[in-house]
Amino acid sequence: MNLLAFNVPTNISLPALLLDVNAFDENCQMIAHKANGKTIRIATKSIRSVPVLRQILASNSVYIGLMSFSPKEAIFLAEKGFEDILLGYPCWDSSALQQIARLNRDGNQIISMVDSIEHIEHLAKISNETNGVFYLCIDIDMSTTFGSLHFGVRRSPINTEEGIVQIAKKIKENPQLKLLGVMGYEAQIAGVGDKLPSQQLKNQVVSLLKKRSIHNIYQRRKRLVEILEKEGMPIQFVNGGGTGSLHTTSQDNTVTELTAGSGFYAPLLFDYYRDFHYQPSLFFALQIVRKPTNNIYTCLGGGYIASGPHGKDKVPQPVYPPGGKLLPFEGAGEVQTPVYYENETLEIGDAIIFRAAKAGEICERFGEIVCLENNQVVETFSTYRGEGQCFL
């Protein structure tokens, strides 16, 4: 979207979530281009809209399958006709897992994530009770350690040969559990920016740690996959990466498929990476409802703060008209957000355009996504919320 010529159509009710169709389409092709012959699974937590998921899948043949974030969401997507759904995280919800076991028995493929004996025993019990089937993916730890520094996130405990052999043997005990794949998410590469403003030293350290981690990641993933094969458990896929690590994960010969999500919308946090750049495509518009002073314009709503460690980088920012700044003692508020402009004349009823810090989370605050092309509404897409769904 050309922000220099951005105008919110007057027939849009504000607040509104806006998708720049041209930028979104460009991102779909840019991400596909990085696949290096592998397929790409779409991370639904970063999208949270069934029509948008369909648009991505239709945009390029490289996009095959979904990675969902909750068992009830996976069931919802299967009922919508999506196939090959990988649950990106372990779950314990017995009721939802019973549904998944039955759906799989009847021909669906929803793959559950495991990283412990407890997970496997729980799924085995449910499969026996329902006469159902569970397809499994083992989540292996891709974090790296430098002395006392843990570089990565706290996900799977499986990072040794003994750990994955123990898991493999446990899966073998139940014929209704079928191992299909392995996932190794290198969060320290994909999820950590290394071009943060005013943090030059931190950026240099993070960039160095990323480079030193990559070889370790390749070697560990290869070794653990080879061990599974030696245990007589060949797998169909090895999943890796996220949008932030496509450029490195796609070069790993062990990996057969990649995952991407946030890059399609390109939120603010993606401005802080050195090695790639996508077009911002998802925005939200707030309406000015009061003018407490000549230079401050207060909008209705706006407190859409992203998850993760608290900081300024998790706060939405005004982007159009350019030059807007949040007030340091108010920020983006629950029901009102004041924006300061030094050289801008706006009126009550005008719109200010913002970008959110992260991708899919903002969709939880809106029932629909208004699709714009050349400042004209061309379509509206329902979000999960617009379909009455709330999964986490």
Describe this structure in words.
The protein is an alpha/beta fold. Helices cover 28% and strands 25% of the residues. Strands 1, 12, 13, 14, 15, 16, 17, 18 and 19 form a 9-stranded mixed sheet that branches. Strands 2-3-4-5-6-9-10-11 form an 8-stranded parallel β-barrel, surrounded by 5 helices. The chain is elongated and about 70 Å long.
In short:
The protein is of the alpha/beta class. Helices cover 28% and strands 25% of the residues. The protein has helices at residues 21-33, 50-59, 71-79, 94-105, 117-130, 161-172, 187-190, 200-230, 246-249, and strands at 16-20, 39-43, 63-68, 85-87, 110-114, 134-139, 144-146, 149-151, 177-184, 237-240, 257-260, 282-293, 296-300, 317-320, 325-326, 336-340, 351-355, 368-373, 376-382.
Order of helices and strands: EHEHEHEHEHEEEHEHHEHEEEEEEEEE
> Given the structure, what is the number of helices?
9
Quote the distance from N terminus to C terminus: 31 Å
- The dominant shape is elongated
Radius of gyration: 22 Å
**Structural class computed from helices and strand pairing:** alpha/beta
Instruction: Characterize the biggest β-sheet.
Output: 9 strands, mixed
Low-confidence stretches: none
Percent of residues in helices comes to 25-40%
Mean pLDDT: 88
How many DSSP-defined strands? 19
Question: Approximately how much beta-strand content do the residues carry?
Answer: 25-35%
Q: What attributes does this structure have?
A:
alpha/beta, 19 strands, 392 residues
Topology at a glance:
Layout: E1 16-20, H1 21-33, E2 39-43, H2 50-59, E3 63-68, H3 71-79, E4 85-87, H4 94-105, E5 110-114, H5 117-130, E6 134-139, E7 144-146, E8 149-151, H6 161-172, E9 177-184, H7 187-190, H8 200-230, E10 237-240, H9 246-249, E11 257-260, E12 282-293, E13 296-300, E14 317-320, E15 325-326, E16 336-340, E17 351-355, E18 368-373, E19 376-382
Parallel strand pairs: 1-18, 2-3, 2-11, 3-4, 4-5, 5-6, 6-9, 9-10, 10-11
Antiparallel strand pairs: 1-12, 7-8, 12-13, 12-17, 13-16, 14-17, 15-16, 18-19
Helix pairs in contact: 3-4, 4-5, 6-8
